[in-house]
Design brief:
The complex is a heterotetramer of chains A (671), B (113), C (511) and D (188). By secondary structure, chain B is an alpha+beta fold. Chain B has three helices and five strands, in the order αβαββαββ. Chain B has a three-stranded antiparallel sheet, covered by helices on one side. A two-stranded antiparallel sheet of chain B has the order 1-4. In chain D, α2 packs across α6 and α3 packs across α6. The longest helix of chain D has 20 residues. The chains are: A mainly alpha (671), B alpha+beta (113), C alpha+beta (511), D alpha/beta (188). At the C-D interface, α9 and α18 of C face β1, α3 and α4 of D.
């Protein structure tokens, strides 16, 4: 069956899931059936994605009269293959997760219907072969996600978070429409493949305009700084699987949009647009991780880390564009491949982490790191699975995050191959920024894992947490996927390099995979490593000493003594590093960015009478909200007041408006 | 640092050779008393017990019991009866059982003072 | 050496009229006036306003609890003791007027069950957590169990508590630090010392002065002479005994020798805390030589058993002094010069652990700590007694209040001590003790220990047994300046340096 | 040699000391070297001393005495300590900390009670103090003196090493690796 066929099957499965959810009316059985169908759809989507990667772009299938612009045009492309496969994986994991996470009920049924519709919309975005199809699918995907976030509209901050999502998403949508309209009008086609074929006819000015519009428009969805503010607002208020879906997939669709314009519709962009893209990506990565560092809410923390990872991906894309402009087509393909690899990896472990956050929230009743602690004893399964995801996202070998980030770095380090000193320096600067980001990411995730899971419970609920009846299969599946994506890197690269031949026309494989599980970054004379052997080695260096110890340890039975605590102190939870104290050094180092505010309150300020509680707070200022969005919001409100007179309520006046618009449209068309 | 290096060379070695050789500085140290046998009667013994601030002395019938471990070498008993109590000059006192520290001094019948 | 003199207290007469007390008992440099409970608050206002220094605050327990405030009228060259009988269980919150009184308020509550009005939270000072109502206390009626006494130190928000101790580094006393930190800066710092409380004041009751001195020396062994001297002087002024002048000269020599070796030890500790091993070795050579001088001159490395009620038990071996002292001090001086020339060392000291003049005065700090902060208090000069009448020391004062200032003050004092020892030795010190006359009484005694003014107040009954003894070594005072000094820094590693420069003992404050 | 010290405690014979000192030092070095690789690690514990014993202990490491030359070292971590040098009359409020410190040490371990307070001299047992270290910890070596001078401390450490040699030979390698469990542990 063709890739498009598989995707159709997936959409069908999800359609059935919608029906099952609505018909079942929230009964447990119906929900389980719905999830089973959803999972099957996911499997089909994975099959479709992989086959699209392997067998290249399929034909454009038009449903309905071809000459009607509004007809449904579908095409399975290699570029979308990675995203489709990821969509499938996420769908399967979430399907396995939902039955134990959501309690049965009509609300859940409705939620599931919306969720599966969102899956359909997403796959439609990926399979869209025409402009109109793409835009319709995109907009419906956005609206359905808005509904997803509104799962519990009565809770506070939910409406606000959802509105941030919708507002920014619609703003971006306008820019996307503009970009597509430019291309469609300049190439006289609404079909993406035709647009791609005729792109060289468009004048450079229009092409760059269209690209920048698309970059900004999709940047809103992908969360490029400073367009990122919706992520930390929307993720915490959505249900865990909703957040996972948002971070695991929807955000990636933004990246897909950027890739679609950069590598399919408008190949051979000038270097400076690539530079803009790369700069935006690097900035996003650094800012994202820096803000993640000072979040106490696990979901906000993960949301900011998503921003960071999107930054890494977009950096890779931008660099690929630069290399493309400088005829380094092998490196360009290599960096695009690395970026897509990172898309798959991040989708995997970020989904995992959000799902496990849901488990923690159900088990301990909070997402505030400073109210958790010691969970590794209470939630061992969760701890192990989360550790896999954490190692992955911290880009530590032998997990998958390390592989893709290593590839990206190897690509960036070859900036000198552009032949331009300036560009070489700029690309390596981006690499350095990513290096800082990577270091901070390890710091951030030592904190993000250590504070909740290690040490002592900081609150009674955390001490009483239990994972009985909590979902496990979904996250476990993703953990396995994380390991597979690392150990099986050569296979993944094999598949991706085939896709690159379709997308960029460059056959990477001979250089990239010289055999014996080694990977070379696009050029034989630069560097090489083998994720598989590295994993084997790391397992060995930990296992061998352990075995030696177990074999040779003295037979006399040892005694266990309590931790040395300096004598008299009975350790109290308040005597361990908290999330905010752990990240205090960053607040000092980057205070220019954070503008931290400090307040100390004592029971008595009398130096001799000092006693009683000491209360210390250090808050980080939300710069972008304060200095970027507040003014915009005020301006919009002012504008709304200004144009209110147009709203007279007189029908004839409205008809007049319509007439004017049509006239305007004709004039524009005539020009 | 070279300054300190030079100082060290100029200063030379001050480290004691103890235990290989005896250390002269030990001479100046206060040491527990040694009780001359045959001159202490019960009355004197009771006076010594009374002046001892650290309960190192007590009389057990006809015997004056001296616990070296409790002695702080304050010298009050020597002041009280210099003819009967003299410094032992002994500072290597560490032992591995409390019993080692308990010394019995036999008392004589009334001695005229 | 510019001395920032405290605000001149009004003349004693004007003060007494101000606090409205007629009957005055004068005893050896200390004036005792009764103040009715009703007028206590105004009296404290007057005295504190006039710049008098609240040196101590303690209670005695007859048929009713009596509060005694010891004021240092440093420009009047004497002490003023106000006696106030507390008839109910509360008295005006004195620490609101004179913050220096806070720790004593807590102590008095623990021991006697009377507390300052207004119900401000009180800290645990001496009573261990396991102490029940039957735990021995100085007061007749047992205070409430100390559960309510100790204001809990809790940490809220984004700071956490860094526990340290009580078992700390090697060769130091047990002390518990509660270090409240945000991860970077030190938000708060508090100390627990009750695990070294040996109930000395409780033990001294019913003892004869001789036995009392034996224990008093061991209250703070590193200032044995000073504490013993203060207790002996208290007994003497209580019973009206006149120690022979030669004995007083001997006491003076012992006290200055004590100051010398303590400052050498402080220098060694400073080097250790700054990680300067060579400097530590040099300072320890000086310290060891000075200790051997002590042993040669007085027969004990730490000068135990020199002071006796009414005089001294041992006279100095002046020959040994002439032989030993120059060499020992020469070592100290050379080590100090080398240290002052070592920038890596000096940089750690400068602007570290600052105690401002205002803090020092507010908290009633004494000794080198206060003098390094520009408060020129020194009981050898402010409340001079024999042998210092004829041999006044020059007070070393610095203004900056940092570790460096304390270090320099110690060096200057060491030099001054050597000069004083020369004078006193020339003045013909000797041994001997005046017999203690019978009949009871109460009196105040003081001596300037290496850490600052050590106070003692003793009352004896008719047959010469102690009914109440108050020991106030300098450590009791200066520890309360320590957390301010520590919080003026943001760096953990400075805290050992600050502790070394304060050179206090836990034994002294917990007694 | 402990027997020797018992004999000499009453009637001193300084003349007889030097040769025996040589023998003693030789045996000590050989023991410490063979059993503890010239590194017997000492942790100090203050259970209410007057701060003078601490000063003398600090001076052990000073140039005049330099206990490192004999293979002794101070360590702040009881986990690494072979010998616990205890001062003070063992204040009741402190016994938990004392026991914790002792239990934190790996066996075979020694407890050396240092100074008259620790040996029950200065403070009688009462509500404040136990009066002697032996009440709480299983003391192996007692060092009298108020304070014991650094030389006396050195000699005490030599005695302790002999004691440790006995302990090592007496090891049973049962749980805990320490032949004698701390006193009073059973009751509490």
């Amino acid at each position: 069956m063709s890739a498009l066929g598989w995707l159709a099957v997936a959409a069908g499965g999800w359609g059935l899931a919608v029906l099952a959810a609505l018909a079942g009316g929230g009964r447990a059985g119906a929900i389980r059936l719905c999830c089973a169908l959803s999972g099957l759809g996911g499997a089909a989507a994975m099959a479709g994605g992989v086959s699209a990667l392997l067998w290249g772009n399929g034909p454009v299938v038009t449903v309905g009269p071809a000459e009607v612009a509004g007809s449904l045009q579908l095409q399975a492309t290699s570029l979308a293959g990675v995203f489709a496969a990821l969509l499938g994986l996420v769908a399967v994991a979430i399907a396995a997760y939902i039955p134990r996470y959501h309690e049965p009920g009509p609300g859940t049924a409705l939620y599931l219907a919306v969720y599966n519709l969102a899956l359909v919309a997403s796959v439609a975005v990926l399979a869209a072969g025409g402009v109109v199809t793409f835009l319709v699918a995109w907009e419906s995907m956005a609206l359905l996600c808005y509904l997803l976030i509104l799962r519990h509209p009565s809770r506070d901050a939910v409406a606000g978070g959802a509105f941030w999502f919708l507002a920014l998403s619609e703003t971006g949508f306008v820019l996307i429409i503009a970009a597509f309209v430019i291309l469609a009008t300049k190439t006289h086609s609404m079909e993406l493949s035709v647009i791609a074929a005729r792109a060289h006819l468009v004048s450079p000015a229009w092409r760059d305009t269209a690209f920048l519009l698309a970059l900004a428009g999709f940047g809103f969805k992908a969360g490029l700084v400073p367009l990122h503010v919706w992520l930390p607002e929307a993720h915490p208020v959505a249900p865990a699987d909703g957040s996972a879906f948002l971070s695991g997939l929807i955000v990636k669709l933004g990246a897909y949009g950027i890739a679609l314009f950069a590598f399919r519709l408008l190949p051979a962009q000038p270097a400076w647009t690539g530079l803009v893209t790369m700069a935006a990506g690097a900035l996003t990565a650094a800012i994202g991780i820096l803000y993640a560092m000072n979040e106490r809410d696990l979901k906000r923390f993960l949301a900011y880390s998503t921003i960071e990872n999107i930054g890494i991906i977009v950096t890779a894309f931008g660099a690929a564009m630069i290399f493309g402009a400088y005829q380094q087509r092998a490196l360009a393909a290599f960096l695009l491949l690395a970026g897509l690899y990172h898309v798959a990896n991040h989708g995997t472990y970020k989904t995992l982490l959000f799902l496990e956050t849901g488990v923690i929230e159900h088990a301990a009743g909070t997402r505030d790191m400073d109210r958790l602690g010691g969970l590794i004893h209470r939630l061992p399964r969760t701890a192990v699975i989360s550790l896999a995801g954490t190692l992955g996202i911290a880009a530590l070998p032998p997990l998958n995050g390390f592989v893709s980030e290593w590839l990206i770095f190897q690509g960036l380090f070859q900036g000198f191959r552009t032949g331009s000193h300036l560009l070489g320096i700029l690309i390596v600067t981006a690499a350095a920024t990513l290096g800082l980001t990577g270091g901070l990411a390890i710091y951030a995730f030592v904190r993000g894992y250590g504070i909740p899971f290690l040490g002592m419970p900081r609150t009674r609920p955390a001490a009483a947490a239990t994972e009985r009846g909590q979902p496990v299969t979904g996250p476990a599946l993703l953990a396995v996927a994380c390991v597979a994506l690392a150990v099986g890197a050569p296979v993944v690269l094999l598949v991706l390099s085939r896709a690159m031949r379709t997308v960029t026309g460059v056959g990477l494989r001979p250089v990239l995979l010289p055999g014996n599980l080694t990977v070379l970054p696009a050029h034989t004379d630069f560097s090489a490593f083998s994720p598989t052997w590295l994993a084997v080695f790391l397992v060995a260096v930990t296992a061998v000493p352990l075995l030696i110890y177990l074999a040779g340890r003295p037979r006399a039975d040892s005694v266990t003594v309590p931790v040395w605590d300096g004598g008299m102190v009975a350790f109290k939870p308040r005597m361990q590093y908290s999330a905010m104290t752990f990240s205090a050094p960053t607040r000092v180092t980057f205070d220019a960015l954070y503008r931290p505010s400090v307040s100390v309150r004592r029971a008595s300020d009398d130096p001799a009478g000092r006693s009683g509680p000491v209360h210390y707070e250090s808050a980080v200022a939300p710069l972008f909200l304060r200095y970027l969005y507040r003014p915009v919001i005020r301006a919009v409100e002012w504008l709304a007041d200004v144009v209110r007179p147009l709203q007279s309520g007189d029908v004839s006046l409205y008809l007049f408006y319509v007439f004017l618009m049509i006239l305007l449209a004709y004039l524009v068309g005539a020009l | 640092m070279p300054l300190w290096f030079a100082r060290g060379l100029r200063r030379g070695i001050v480290t004691t050779r103890y235990p290989a050789r005896p250390d002269r500085s030990a001479a100046g140290l206060p040491t527990p008393p040694a009780f001359r046998a045959g001159v202490i009667d019960r009355r004197l013994a009771d006076r010594l017990v009374a002046v001892c601030p650290s309960r190192a002395l007590h009389r057990d019938g006809g015997v004056l019991v001296f616990d070296v471990g409790r002695c702080t070498a304050c010298g009050r008993c020597q002041e009280a009866a210099p003819w009967a109590v003299t410094p032992s000059g002994e500072f290597e006192l560490a032992g591995t059982s409390p019993a080692q520290f308990v010394k019995q001094i036999g008392l004589v019948q009334e001695v005229g003072q | 050496m510019t001395a920032l003199q405290p605000v001149p207290a009004g003349t004693l007469a004007s003060l007494l009229t101000a606090i409205g007390s007629a009957s005055v008992r004068d005893g050896g440099g200390a004036v005792t006036v009764p103040v009715p409970a009703a007028r206590l608050e105004t009296a404290v206002h007057h005295l504190a306003g006039a710049g008098a220094r609240l040196a101590d605050l303690f209670a005695t327990d007859g048929d009713q609890v009596t509060l005694r405030l010891v004021w240092g009228l440093d420009t009047e060259r004497q002490y003023l003791i106000t006696e106030t009988a507390i008839d109910d269980l509360e008295y005006p919150p004195l620490s609101d007027i004179a913050p220096a009184a806070f720790a004593e308020e807590c102590e008095i509550y623990e021991q006697f069950g009377v507390r300052p009005a207004g119900g401000k939270p009180l800290n645990r000072v001496a009573l261990p957590p396991h102490a029940g109502p039957d735990f021995p206390r100085l007061g007749h009626q047992p205070a409430q169990p100390p559960a309510e006494v100790h204001a809990p130190h809790t940490v809220g928000g984004q700071a956490f508590e860094f526990p340290f101790g009580p078992v700390r580094q090697v060769g130091v006393e047990s002390l518990y630090y509660g270090l409240v930190t945000s991860g970077e800066e030190i938000v708060d710092l508090y100390l627990f010392t009750w695990h070294k409380h040996r109930g000395l004041e409780w033990r001294l009751r019913g003892r004869r002065p001789a036995e009392a001195l034996f224990l008093a020396e061991r209250a703070e062994g590193l200032s044995a002479t000073a504490v013993a001297w203060s207790v002996a002087a208290a007994v003497e002024s209580a019973l009206g005994a006149e120690p022979p002048p030669a004995a007083l000269l001997t006491r003076g020599i012992a006290l200055e020798l004590e100051r010398l070796y303590n400052h050498a030890a402080a220098m060694a500790a400073l080097c250790q805390s700054t990680g300067l091993s060579v400097g530590q070795a040099a300072a320890e050579i000086a310290l060891e030589r000075l200790l051997r001088v002590n042993a040669a001159v007085f027969g004990h490395r730490y000068l135990f058993g020199v002071v006796e009620a009414g005089g001294v038990r041992r006279g100095p071996d002046l020959a040994a002094l002439q032989v030993g002292l120059p060499g020992g001090y020469g070592e100290l001086r050379r080590a100090a010069d080398a240290l002052l020339a070592t920038n890596s060392f000096m940089d750690r000291l400068e602007a570290t652990g600052i105690v401002t003049t205002e803090q020092a005065r507010r908290l009633g700090l004494v000794g080198p700590v206060a003098r390094a902060s520009g408060v020129a208090v020194d009981s050898r000069v402010d409340q001079p007694a024999a042998p210092y009448f004829g041999h006044p020391p020059a007070i070393a004062v610095r203004g900056t209040g940092d570790v460096l200032a304390r270090f320099q003050v110690m060096l200057d004092e060491a030099a001054e001590s050597v000069r004083l020892i020369g004078d006193l030795a020339a003045a013909g010190p000797g041994t001997g003790a005046a017999p203690l006359p019978g009949g009871g009484g109460a009196g105040l005694g003081w001596a300037e220990s290496p850490r600052g003014e050590a106070l003692a107040w003793v009352s004896l009954d008719a047959d010469g047994r102690i009914t109440r003894a108050r020991l106030r070594p300098a450590s009791v005072r200066n520890w309360r300046g320590f957390d301010d000094a520590a919080r003026s820094q943001n760096v953990f590693t400075d805290i050992p340096i600050i502790e070394a420069s304060f050179w206090l003992t836990v034994a002294g404050t917990a007694r | 040699m402990s027997g020797g010290s018992r004999a000499r405690a009453v009637a001193a014979s300084p003349a007889a000391r030097a040769p025996e000192g040589d023998v003693l030092a030789a045996r000590l070095r050989q023991r410490v070297a063979s059993q503890f690789g010239r590194s017997l690690h000492i942790r100090t514990l203050d259970t209410g001393s007057c701060a003078v014993c601490e000063q003398e202990i600090r001076l052990l490491a000073a140039p005049h005495y330099d206990l490192h030359r004999l293979g002794f070292f101070f360590t702040p971590a009881p986990r690494h300590a072979d010998l616990l040098l205890v001062t003070g009359p063992m204040i009741r409020a402190f016994d938990v900390a004392a026991r914790k410190t002792y239990e934190a040490m790996p066996g075979p371990k020694l407890v050396v009670a240092t100074g008259a307070c620790a040996l029950g001299g200065v403070y009688p047992a009462d509500a404040f103090v136990y009066g002697a270290v032996g009440e709480i910890l299983p003391v192996d070596v007692w060092i009298p003196g108020c304070p014991p001078s650094p030389l006396a401390l050195l000699q005490g450490l030599l005695v302790a090493v002999d004691r440790l040699a006995e302990k090592v030979s007496g090891l049973t390698f049962t749980a805990g690796g320490d032949a004698e469990p701390p006193a009073r542990e059973a009751e509490r």
